[in-house]
Amino acid sequence: ILDRLFILLDTGTTPVTRKAAAQQLGEVVKLHPHELNNLLSKDVFSILCNPPEQIRVFVPFIVNTLWDALLDLDDLTASTNSIMTLLSLLLTFPHVRQCSMEQSLTVLVPRVWPFLRHTISSVRKAALETLYTLLSKADESCAVWINPILQDMLRHIFQSCILESNDEILELIQKVWMELLSQVPQQFVVAASCPWMGAWLCLMMQASHIPIDLNMLLEVKARSKDKAGAKARLGNNQVKETVQQYIAGAETLADDSLTRDYVVVRARLMAARLLGGLCRCICDPQLNAASQEIRPAESLGQLLLFHLNSKSALQRIAVALVLCEWAALQKDCQMVSSMVQPRLLSVLTEQLYYDEIAIPFTRMQNECKQLISLLAEVHIDLQDRLNSSVFTIDQANELVTTIFTETTAGMNVKSKQWLALESKRQQAQSTVMETNTEWQQLHLRVHMFTACAAINLEVLPDKLNPLVRPLMETVKKEENTLIQSYAASFIAKLLRQCAVRSPCPNPKIIKNLCASACMDPSATPSSACPVPTAQEQAKGGGLERDGMHHMVNKTQGIITLYRHQRAAFAITSKRGPTPKAPKAPVTELPPGSTISSDNDETKKQFLVQRRGAEFALTTVAKHFGADLNRSLPYLWENTVGPLKAVAKENLYRQAQLERGDAAAQELVNSLQVLEVMAGAMAGELRPLLLEHLPHLFTCLQHPYTAVRHMAARCVGVLSKIATLETMNSFLEYVLHWLAAIDDCTKQEGAIEALACVMEQLDVDIVPYIVLLVVPVLGRMSDPSDSIRFMATQCFATLIRLVPLEAGIPDPPAMSADLIQQKARERQFLEQLLDGRKLENYKIPVPIKAELRKYQQDGVNWLAFLNKYKLHGILCDDMGLGKTLQSICILAGDQYLRAQEYAKTKAADCSPLPSLVVCPPTLTGHWVDEVAKFCSKEFLNPLHYTGPPTERMRLQHQVKKHNLVVASYDVVRNDIDFFRNIKFNYCILDEGHVIKNGKTKLSKAIKQLAANFRVILSGTPIQNNVLELWSLFDFLMPGFLGTERQFAARYGKPILASRDAKSSSREQEAGVLAMEALHRQVLPFLLRRMKEDVLQDLPPKIIQDYYCTLSPLQVQLYEDFAKSRAKASVEDSISAASGEEEEKPKLKATGHVFQALQYLRKLCNHPNLVLTPQHPEYNRITDQLACQNSNLRDIQHAPKLSALKQLLLDCGLGGGGGAEGGTEAVVAQHRVLIFCQLKSMLDIVEHDLLKPKLPTVTYLRLDGSVPAGQRHSIVSRFNNDPSIDVLLLTTHVGGLGLNLTGADTVVFVEHDWNPMRDLQAMDRAHRIGQKRVVNVYRLITRGTLEEKIMGLQKFKMSIANTVINQENTSLQSMGTDQLLNLFTLDKDDKSDKGEQSSSTSGKASIKSVLDGLGELWDQQQYDSEYNLDSFMNSLH
């Protein structure tokens, strides 16, 4: 409708049509004011604001509609804001104001009054803006409409000021008020305001905790349209809702006392500004002619004098404030200033107990009298010592301290009388202290504001002390920042006024301020003891105990680093959510000026004093501007003099140390003053400041830690105010000190200065980042703790900003050398942040495998880390070949180092061994993989394992090998041996085992010394943020700060954001922290998921996991070899091989088959063969009982241990949920576990999953599940990702089921018929499977199982995804090899390849296995073959 009406309005053919459209439009807007939002967003607004001629005449309809709409609105109308905003916007256009309105503004403007006290601040703001627009754009005739409502307008605006708590709106109120005073003829203003001046002053001095008397406020009810109701004038005795109003708004009553005091003082200050403006009008000379009978100025002077003479502190403060603000606006009103001046100066010397402390004061009198009478009861008479009816605060204080102690000295402290006296004394003492605190604060404020008034009126007394003292005391003690900064500005004015006085007080005042600025030891370090001593720290909480890494003393250490760590400690020590930010606007405060409530008193006192001095010094610097060094030579000299002296003397460090702590402290203090003032100094003084930059650089090498620290902070501040000049000098002179390995002091100064520059410049450091990253990176492996930690912290910050660097031009005036260097180092950074830009690393030794593209990329990345002495985490998905990539860099680097050493004999490339630490089930696997991919001349691994005696023997072998493979537990137990070897590479496989930094294992691993450290891990570390710290603490200690700093910066916000109850602010903070952390660690993490590299991968990756038989299994295997059963098997086979080749049917009667079946079960688990019928059963069970073990123990079945490790590697069963609360509900990998025999499945379920991995969820599918239910189990597994594992027998699992829910398949045992295993694998690898499937086969080394797998050769070549003829056919095999199946290979090293390829015999193994296939029929799957009779032949 709106749109159509506007078209009519715009294009209507006759004025009548248009008029009708405009009226209709007005009605629509009245009925649907919320549509105004749409109006604002359309072209309509622009038509209204700049209407074509034909519409101009109808704009009044729209505007009148808006004015009328104001009558219908109340607090709850949603569109109030839209209407007010549109109205104030429209009124800014001249034609809108000019157009004849139906009613005059005198009637319309009062409709705005109710909105001045609206509950929504944006509505209050819009109402004030409407008034300001009307006033500021008004013409000469405006008095016509303002006059009748002028008094109401002044009252409403002033009342808003008193009740307002929003800073921005207070500023707007002042703007409107001053505009009003300037637009209306002065005589009208005076006539309207004089009757209310007294009431306004009273409102301004309203006590903050007492509600305002409602008779003093204009009550604003929205006028209704019926004119009768409108006549009910304000102040009428209508029934009022009693809403209590307080100064600075009732909503701030609930705030803490500091915040409440802040907003109340702010309201008083603003009210004083309004009244100050009014006083100027009242004192207009034209309105105060000598001939007048009543002169307004005289009345005003009497009113002010009346309040100055009262005994109320608030009345005196109010008058002093009004005088201050008025004198600032009008310098020459002799009449009033001569009336109040003598009284002002006498107030400065008065000591008075103000009305405001009447209640605590009376209570103090009563309690003191009660105490005296109690003392009298025990015959202690104080008449002669305290003979007064009213006690002063000092007398009362003396009574409850000295007098009480002296007079009760002889009493028994355990007697009831004494206890009663003591409790009364304590009560009285707390009242005395409370009264004293209140009085001191009021007394100081009265004197301070009075002093300010005297300064602004320029009536300085002969003796300045009464004036200076309250100002200086306020700077030192006042907790309210507004009052402190107010005092600071008047100190600046006082210094200006006193510049020509003799004797001049300025040097003394400045000396005092400079001393106060250096009082706070948390900001200005002491040269003798730059950080708190160990005892003080112990009092403050267990910092040392908590692994606070950094120690600082007089000459060594970095204070900035120490403070960062302290700050993090403080944040993380606090329990509970992060505290809300204080409400008081902290914009005008210097950094660190908010006072935390939990600081102890002395710290708070120092902080307040320092903050006040900073306010004063910065205000002085701004006030004097370019004239500072000439007008206040003492201050200038005090700031830069000691710096010049250092440069002039140019002493050696030893000489500087000999000059002592006092000389160093003087330098520290002058640097502190420089830091405070530099930012506030005028631009013209900057060149003078920059002359001292070289002197600051000299101080960066000073032997005193505190001097270096302050110099670094000053360099930081200069970099902020003169970035180009400071950074150019810094890059030229200081940056290269980082590499001065022989001079630790220089390095510490340089890295601390860089840290301070980064802190100050923040994002502005970006143009210089490229030049800073590489030198800092070089220090991340510095031998000195302090330098390493500070460098890693700087690097961490820089690396997060690097993405911003790309499009930023070089800073002007950068030298050509630096620009070239920048280009070189940018290339490094690009490689660091984008793996695709890495140089291709040609592996210098032959590797017996063809690397896929992503594997070559991984090796390139490892080589890049190697080149720049960096460390990282390779966390590719399972099965992508992390081991192979690591072997490539291990072998390559070993070879290149050896070549380099042969050429140069340099110590830094002497041959060193490397170390691989992995879970115990993987040590053998690693040794095999190394042998498989790389020949012994390049990598010769030592398998460091076995019982302690065996390991002792192996320790002597280490020198002969260039790679040691050991398990975590072994390294932990033998850490004393490993700690003393310097390794080239230290690789932690499945390195997330050190995610908890507090375990013995982690602590041991972190003692290993290596040139390069790499962690391999298949679990996605990035999700479990809190575990990252420990991993990086191994790789690059300090890169993520101390654990406390890490928790403060990332852990707390990220965990808080994951809490269901978190606020949107906390969630945003969590997201930002997570992003920052990712930016920081991603250059050192390489993670490829299978889905990322699918094009490089086959659909299946098959890996064999070799297990070594447990001692128990070896014993049983050997018993078989000696038994009767073995002999009869040999006979059967020899007989079979004697027949002709045409009939290769193996007459493998029971014996051969049973023997194979027996050995196969034995490989799986000794429990499967050690039934009570077994001849060795009793002996073995007794033997195990002696060792506190039994047959069910998984240590006797290496396949179960290996399976457990595999599941853990898949991210299943790790637990850890309680620690970080971040364990995923759905695991990353889901697993099918295949066994041949149902009894083996039982063992997996009852001996492994339930007791050892209780968090793993599983389903089971075997022959005992009725066929009808099998499908529902399969679909449940496929559709419910929270189920981790499905247990199957090969037979059931191979029957055409579709199990695409899983991506990992584990064969605990194997079918003789390779096709059956292949079918089982394909369960997980069907069309629906989007992921690559990993197949793990657990094979017992040296047994029949390994031989059969070797014979079958059905392991798929990884690149060849088709099962071709070659894979399925089996080579022929001789009798001796078939017999070989039944013996246990002792020596693992026999080269199996040769055996299997030999074709010496006549009988074909195919015939044997075919026969086995037939024997092994369906029933034997279901009811497992009964071996009882076979058992008997084992004797």
Brief write-up:
It comes from Xiphophorus couchianus. It is built from 69 helices and 13 strands. The protein is mostly helical.
Report on the architecture of this protein:
Helices cover 57% and strands 5% of the residues. The chain is mostly helical and 1435 residues long. It has five domains: 149-223 and 244-347, no CATH class; 355-517, no CATH class; 545-575 and 602-805, Alpha Horseshoe (Leucine-rich Repeat Variant), CATH 1.25.10; 835-1040, Rossmann fold (3-Layer(aba) Sandwich), CATH 3.40.50; 1100-1430, 3-Layer(aba) Sandwich (Rossmann fold). The strands form two sheets. It has a seven-stranded parallel β-sheet. Strands 8-13-12-9-11-10 form a six-stranded parallel β-sheet, sandwiched between helices. Strand 10, helix 60 and strand 11 form a beta-alpha-beta unit. The longest helix is centred in the first third of the chain and has 41 residues, at 416-456. The radius of gyration is 44 Å and the shape is elongated. The relative contact order is 0.03.
